[in-house]
């Protein structure tokens, strides 16, 4: 019985990780990319080429990673060493609203 339970937890954990990655790609990179491309077009008036697209993509990925870390701060234990407990509690309370 314990084997089945462990297997189910393993499957659930893998699904959660897969969902997280998809969520990260769609929301973090997708919206960041769209927002940055729109800003480039509106500010500079340049046509969006593949070169501009790739540059914006390279810039959007690190910011998506940083935002993902901040949003899910309770799951990243290294943040407990960087930020005081009070800050982490406030971040968690904001995320749970």
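-> sequence recovered:
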């Amino acid at each position: 019985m314990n084997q089945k339970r462990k297997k189910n937890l393993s499957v659930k954990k893998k699904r959660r990780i897969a969902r997280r990655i998809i969520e990260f790609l769609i929301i973090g990179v997708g919206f960041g990319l769209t927002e940055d491309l729109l800003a480039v077009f509106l500010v500079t008036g340049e046509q969006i080429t593949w070169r501009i697209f790739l540059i914006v993509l390279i810039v959007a990925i690190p910011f998506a990673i940083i935002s993902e870390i901040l949003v899910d701060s309770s799951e990243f234990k290294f943040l407990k060493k960087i930020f005081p407990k009070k800050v982490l509690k406030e971040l968690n309370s904001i995320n749970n609203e």
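The CA atoms of residues 68 and 97 lie 17 Å apart.
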